[in-house]
Amino acid sequence: MAAARYSSNELRRQVGSPRSKGRDNKDTLCRNILIYGNCRYEDQGCTFNHDQNKSSSPQADFGKKTFNVESPAFTPLSQQSAPVKKSTLSSQAASAAPFTPRGIGTPNLQQTTEASVFNPAAIREFTPQNYDIGNPTANGVAQDNGLYNDPFTAMGSISAALPSAGQFNLYASDHNAIATSGAPFYPQHGAFPTGPLQPPNYHLYQPFDTYRQELQPWQRTTYDFFTPAKVREDLQKKMFATQQVMPNSGLPQLERWHSLFPLDTNNRKNTSSFGYPSWVYKAQNSRTGTHYALRRLEGYRLTNEKAILSVMKEWKKIKSASVVTVHEAFTTREFGDSSLIFAYDYHPLSKTLHEHYFQPAHGNRYRAPNAVQENVLWGYVCQIANALKTIHSNRLAARCLEPSKIILTDTNRVRLAACSVLDVVQFESNTKSVLELQQEDLVKFGRLILSLATGTPPAHLNNVPAALDSLFAKYSANLKDAVAWLIAPPNPGESKSIDNFISGIAAHMTTFFDLSLQDNDDKQFHLAKELENGRVARSVMKLMTIVERGDLGGAQGWSETGDRYQLKLFRDYVFHRVEADGKPNLSIGHMLSCMSKLEAGIDEMVVLTSRDNETVFVLTYRELKKMFDRSFNELVKHSKTGAPGANN
Ligand SMILES: Nc1ncnc2c1ncn2[C@@H]1O[C@H](COP(=O)(O)OP(=O)(O)OP(=O)(O)O)[C@@H](O)[C@H]1O
After folding, report:
1. How far is the CA of 441 from the centre of ligand 1 (A)?
2. 10 Å Cβ neighbour count for 98?
3. Which of 332, 346, 356, 493 is least surrounded by CB atoms within 10 angstroms?
4. What is the fold of 256-504?
């Protein structure tokens, strides 16, 4: 127990030698005898009984008068039940004079059950000298003698529910367990001496590294603790786009889809890709609430039900990072015609390659195309090759390999966006075998890259040999050879395959793979930071549910008493810090580190001072954490909905 020095006038008032108020107390055993075995006021006019043998059962007496403020037997059953006005200092007044234990009765009394609830003899003065942070036992931290016992663990069923050390899972913050099975929120607190003592220190706020290493801590900005501005901005824009609605769009509500939002950037009825005008909408699924991209083929009349069933069955198997996943297809008349709809994964703020590279600036005049950098082109080649590898190995063909049907979902990140459509639309009219369609895929793939490299839309790519020759000026021979191989017809009697192609570009695939791993590492780094922030946010939310709360379960001013008072002071220490001149100190680093230390429950000391500077608590984060968990668990017990886990 490290908390020790307090000024506690109030405490003295509560626990001092009882005043008799003129009543006859001769039959009532003096509480100092009960607690300490002697009463120093015995010869100074204390009117209570000092002969233990004369008293009727003190326990029974105590049981009757537990909640009576007049009662001389000061032996509260729990901190909560004591009828204190402001019990913040109730049980820790080591220096309270009337309770300095003396005499022979003391050791025995320490072993009683009551003594474990209130046992000032066990409170040791905090001595900062020789404090060994690595040895809690030596520091007296582990010897709290039940002062901070978690009330939950007093219940036998709960102790039984404690996980063993091997099962200890820091993140298993399942409050529902408290509500249902009664398991404590942080299991280790109940079984303080037996289980794993505390979460290890790696749960402090410690992201792997920080961006601007050359800076001193005080030169860092708030952003060093969070996701970089660019990433955050991109993600927020995407979230915003996902939530965007258009109330008066005039678009219908489909049977299982609502909030349709048009994604097309022009209203041209272009039939070149599928033979039907196609439109794309963002829509929310009524059942799951998930957003999808619905591709609608206007005026399509389905003649064979099997077309959708058998094609979807095959395409649902395709899981590739380079293919937009298709979920289902159905027909509808809600648009006033007969439409065929495909539901795809929605990738917010994506653009087609056509929009990105060949978008007409005004009217039909094409913007001067930017030359696509070779490494970017190779990135596209690798990703599309990856898509074709998955599709072809599932005995399917992509078919829609044109710039208007490939979307850029992130920087240099492409996905095939209209797979399966032609398979349904041409289910009966298609006369080509899968192998032939796959060969066509390779040629379309080659033309696509050539078109991007030369800045010519595929429809205008009339002179392929000349376009291929022009590649020498800007790109490596390697790229030109790859494109030429894709476009060239196979030797008679042979067929080309995507596997052959991938073997030919293995070096570029490896480079791309490495970049992709690096990107993954980068994201992992940000994720780790956000993980820490998420944990801090959780703790802050819990702290806010405790401090400044009014009554709880009949306990008046609940949040101002007991553990909660110290938590309130901790809140002040973390969030309401002021400089010497009284100006607010808004150091985010301080807030994050304090909250992380609380989360981790480390042995570091923290000094909490009341606002009137009259009370000072010196205690460890470990103790604070116990108070924190205990208070929160108490809230959970009283809440109707039980634990907040489900709402997290
Ligand atoms: N799965 C998707 N998620 C998010 N947006 C998508 C998705 N698929 C397509 N889009 C977007 O929808 C818009 C329209 O796509 P579409 O394929 O119709 O292109 P288009 O240029 O209009 O082609 P066309 O002229 O053939 O209709 C594009 O901006 C595209 O980025």
Report:
1. 20
2. 16
3. 493
4. Transferase(Phosphotransferase); domain 1 (1.10.510)
- Dihedral of CA atoms 604, 610, 615, 619 in degrees, nearest 10, equals -10
Q: And the tokens for 526? A: 């940000």
Candidates 529, 523, 623, 497; CA nearest to 570 is 623
Residue 352, marked binder:
yes
Higher pLDDT residue, 638 or 623? 623
| pLDDT tens figures, 95-109 | 333 333 343 333 333
As for ligand 1, residues whose beta carbon falls within 6 Å of it are 263-265, 270, 273, 278, 280, 293, 324, 344-347, 350-352, 354-355, 404-405, 407, 417
Tokens at 412, concatenated: 């240099």
Length of the chain: 648
- Beta strands 406-410 and 360-362 are unpaired
Atom number in ligand 1 closest to CA 344: 1
Could you state, in order of their start, the residue ranges of all structural domains in the chain? 17-101, 256-504, 520-637
Do residues 357 and 370 lie in contact, with contact meaning Cβ atoms separated by under 8 Å? yes
User: Regarding beta strands 291-297 and 605-609, do their DSSP bridges make them parallel or antiparallel, or are they unpaired?
Assistant: unpaired
Quickly state the pLDDT bin for 249 (edges 50, 70, 90): confident
Do the annotations mark residue 409 as ligand-binding? no
Q: Choose among 168, 161, 164: nearest CA to 184.
A: 161
Q: Which of 297, 352, 415, 420 to mutate to test the pocket of ligand 1 (most atoms within 8 A of CB)?
A: 352
ipTM of predicted assembly, 2 dp: 0.98
Q: Measured in angstroms, how far is the CA atom of residue 382 from the centroid of ligand 1?
A: 22
Compute the chain's Rg from CA coordinates: 37
C-alpha span between 442 and 439 (Å, rounded): 5
Distance 351 CA to ligand 1 centre (A): 7
Q: Is 345 annotated as a binding residue?
A: yes
* Atom 8 of ligand 1: nearest residue by CA position: 417
DSSP 8-state code for residue 5: -
Q: Which amino acid is at 443?
A: V
In sequence order, what are the beta bridge partners of 257? Answer: 285
pLDDT in tens, 128-167: 333 333 343 333 333 333 333 333 333 333 333 333 333 3
Q: What is the dihedral of CA 318, 323, 324, 328, to 10 degrees?
A: -30
Please give the number of the atom of ligand 1 that sits closest to the Cα of 274: 26
What single-letter DSSP state applies at residue 584?
B
Q: How far is the CA of 305 from the centre of ligand 1 (A)?
A: 26
Write down the CATH number for the domain with range 520-637.
Answer: 1.10.287.3700
Q: Residue whose CA is closest, atom 2 of ligand 1?
A: 346
Q: Quote the pTM value.
A: 0.65
> Is the CB of residue 627 less than 8 Å from the CB of residue 91?
no
Residue 365 φ/ψ, nearest 5 degrees: -80, 125
pLDDT range class, residue 293, cuts 50, 70, 90: very high
